[in-house]
Amino acid sequence: MIETIGTTLRAPAETLYAQELDALAREDTHPRPARWKLSPWAVATYVAGGTLSDGTAISTKYFGDRRLIEIAIATLATDRALLLLGLPGTAKSWLSEHLAAAVAGDSRLVVQGTAGTSEETLRYGWNYAKLLAEGPSPSAVVPSPVLRAMREGRIVRIEELTRIPADVQDALISILSEKSLPIPELGADVDAVEGFNVIATANDRDRGVNELSSALKRRFNVVVLPLPESLEDEVAIVQSRVASLSATLALPAQPPAIEEIRRLLTIFRELRAGVTADGRTKLKTPSGTLSTGEAISVVNQGLALAGHFGDGTLRAADVAAGVIGAVVKDPVQDRIAWLEYLETVVKERDGWKDLYRACREATG
């Protein structure tokens, strides 16, 4: 066991929400698939939130259509793998972590997909010192998170699947179809134990995307996570996540006013849509995604500024730099779109003069 010195910066979901998971397990009388910690009903309640018969409040982890959550959970209860697909910032990773925590009690079996992800990362590697000393042997095998999940009957998460090179992605095909991973060097196969499954996440807006082969796509049930439908839904998401992260980071600032969050999200939603909320003014759309996740980051950065360099109250000047950083990814085209929006919309909007001045000053 590796000793950790100091406080963990970010605990896994099963640790942060252990009390809720324990309360659900006590009340859960519904049928459970093999090796699941909770029934599908209890997993859905954990993710979507609710109140138990003993009065325990289960916080909402995913704000959205409950039916999407139920479809995702039902997929995991079958032998089909689950692919959460959506734009960046639509809570794909957040949802996959909580699903794994509730189903398997452990969300830490993760493969982070990158352009440099190798086939060994998905299958297995070797302890070369043992390999040279003993030759191929079970003790010389270094199991990947996928192999560990197969052996232990747990959920493995594969983040950003479409960033993994296509030839490496296809290493999953036999695992998902045969539920078995051959190790030719040992003349053996590892067969998946009941409870094993895969949750993958992917988006098609990122640079460096590698399309999934049709053979691999057929092995997944796809659940598309949309952006929040209404402004108020998005405000609730940002408010909840900011409160959680601010407590973890111990930011010395007051909780942000809802109105400040609403103004920020109004900017993001209008620029995403390419039109103002009233439908009267068409806008240039920046190259960035302007996601809910980015809005959460902007508010947290603003709280850090307010807490450490201000009076602890989030103000327009604390938000301005983060907004510009999120909007202006391309220094030429995005800057043009941002300045046009600033002068034609923000400047003319009642009650937004402070935000206009702060953004204009920060834009330069």
What fraction of residues sit in β-strands? 5-15%
Largest sheet: 5 strands, parallel
* Secondary-structure element string: HHHEEHEHEHEHEHEHHEEEHEHHHHHH
Poorly predicted spans: none
The CATH H-level homologous superfamily of the largest domain? P-loop containing nucleotide triphosphate hydrolases
CATH architecture of the largest domain: 3-Layer(aba) Sandwich
Mean pLDDT: 92
Structure, explained:
With 364 residues, this protein is α/β, with parallel strands linked by helices. It has two domains: 13-224, Rossmann fold; 231-363. It contains 17 helices and eleven strands. It has helices at residues 13-16, 18-27, 40-48, 66-76, 92-104, 119-122, 128-134, 145-152, 166-169, 171-178, 214-217, 231-249, 258-273, 292-309, 316-327, 333-346, 353-363; strands spanning 50-51, 57-58, 81-85, 110-112, 124-126, 141-143, 155-159, 180-183, 188-191, 197-202, 220-224. The protein has a five-stranded parallel β-sheet. A two-stranded antiparallel sheet has the order 1-2. A two-stranded antiparallel sheet has the order 5-6. A hairpin with a 4-residue loop joins β8 and β9 (188-191). The longest helix is centred in the middle third of the chain and has 19 residues, at 231-249. The radius of gyration is 23 Å and the shape is globular. The termini are far apart.
